[in-house]
Input
Amino acid sequence: MTSATDSPLPAVTRLIATDLDGTLLRDDKTLSDRTVAALAAAEEAGIEVFFVTGRPARWMNVVSDHVHGHGMAICANGAAVVDLRAEGTPLMVRPLERDAALAAVRTLREAAPGTSFAVEFTTGIHYEPAYPPFHLDPGATVAVAEKLLQAESPGSGAPVLKLLAHHAELAPDEFLALARSAAGDLASFTRSSPTALLEVSGPGVSKASTLALCCAERGIGQAEVVAFGDMPNDVEMLNWAGASFAMGNAHPDAVAAASGRTVTNNEDGVAVVIERILAAR
Output
């Protein structure tokens, strides 16, 4: 593990892939002037910028005013690719099939009694009565997950992007390990919250696998990608990219996966590396 100032960089950087919360965004969910300037400078230098996040497209307002030329976002941990320049128009959806989602719900209820669920559709989120309420989604339907996943309600057949599974008592990493052991053959499990909140996607769906598809479409090689992240849902992407940086505030799994480390999100760790990439040119 090396620092932002001495970690090897690709011979040519053609794409920057950055997580948002805990990575590009400061803790107050804002972008610093330094970070905005670094992103703009990268674009001017011909480097594509992808925002790669667990957030759904409707929660991308934190960066939508600062997209410059870079409007591409991989949302919901790889389940959707959207163009922020076109009001979040979906370009790709990699859904969690409802049968697999129902099987995952049943398995987690047995493995971790007390688990509550939310279902993230392409059209919005709905959740169970025991699930911590989403204040940003006041129109959500509240019902048991098995009912939420019925095709006729409430998503009216809309694709499922991911399940969210919350446990009030288990430690976050303990809950993740338990879920992967019990139901890892049904879906992909990860987490990005400091609480015991799991994010459940379709098998093989991750930030990394969707980023790889997007890069292949653009003729961009794995070795030409620089990635940034801080939490377990970034691990596959940090492993995949030609060069990768865990934030100074990163989870140990992200640190172990990355080829380098930068300073914290509150210290503009992404901008520090982008400035170095541009200076090297």
